[in-house]
Amino acid sequence: MNNRIKSAGLAAAALLAASGPALAQDTPQFSLSTETAYIFNTLLFLIGGFLVMWMAAGFAMLEAGMVRSKNVSMQCLKNITLYSIAGLMFWITGYNLMYTGVDGGFMGSLGPYSIDPVGGNALDTGYSTASDWFFQMVFCATTASIVSGTLAERIKLWPFLVFTIVLTGFIYPIGGSWEWGAGWLDGMGFSDFAGSTLVHSVGGWAALAGALVLGARTGKYGADGQVHPMPGSSMPLATLGTFILWLGWFGFNGASQLAMGTIGDVSDVSRIFVNTNMAAAAGVVVAVILTQIMYKKVDVTMALNGALAGLVSITAEPLAPSIFQSIIIGGIGGVIVVFAVPMLDKLKIDDVVGAIPVHLIAGIWGTMIVPLSNSDASYYVQGVGVVAFGVFTFGVSLVVWLILKSTIGLRVTAEEEALGLDKTEVGVEAYPEFGQGSGRV
Predict the structure, then answer these.
(1) What average pLDDT score do residues 275-279 get?
(2) Is 347 exposed, middle or buried (0-12, 13-18, 19+ CB in 10 A)?
(3) Of 30, 149, 224, 421, which residue has the fewest beta carbons closer than 10 angstroms?
């Protein structure tokens, strides 16, 4: 099982050492030069990186479609700003906390990350250090995007951005160092190939803590336990966002192979693509069938979240499963969404986009099922990892949310919430032609 700090140079060196027949017996022997392997490995980081960066657009469109029209500009603003904050914080503190000097411990070192100067990348690393930093950074930004959707329509902009600084600069990289930075969990044998727990559950735990402190949207839950639906502004936008996320996930999972300089590596990347796609497809189909059976109508939002839950579920181990196993893993992700969304409503936990079922609960499922296909993993160690990340992320996030609530405040006023955050927090309405009429829901 590859871990996040694996040197692609080792793969290149192994190929150069072996340089034997790779396929059939009559296949001519060949080997890649160190320079060529370096180029292919770097290219994988860069392609994977810009695909994961494009997921920021997916989150923005998904959230824009799932919130009411009076809050669309706010979600767009939050998503472009959180991505930018994540980039800065991952340079200032994040990368070094996650990868530098962890050595089996609980965190790395403080200080900005230093990219090698022009022409200064040593070939024995196996890839450009700048490409590695960029690829790791976009994962950090994904974690913050998860929180944005859950807390939509009632949180102030600036407290959310302050929390984003803490999440991307400290919470995410410290937790990530435990596994991908060769920290204590990696030493135990914990396995999370591309981040079902390290990225998705971390975002889900932070979102859950925020939702509990922030409370539900006004009017969402009645005194008698009734749930009042608050339909989103645009299902086309939400669907577009889901497809963008699905596309970006091929970079998310595929490039987490971390090397493309050998036949074995590029074949593994291809296998990851197939398994990732099949898990997402199964999540959609299961969600569609279940909502038809349970509600006599198909809920498009459940279908969209079924795709995402399937993707999150396969992310912890997208390489080892067979296609059939991938379908089962992703399909159960779809089951999780259909049952967890109404469960949260019964608990009066208001999650606007369904991020907690998709990223937290499906992320736990994906992490715990890794030993099914990966014999190097154990259910006990996977459980230790899930609990450790949950306690750390939820605990620290809860403290930060409570501090923000007691100092600068978290929630807009009831009047501002009724008018919409586009008008009261942003000043630029997404759909100004709707005015103040009944279309502004």
Answers:
(1) 98
(2) exposed
(3) 224
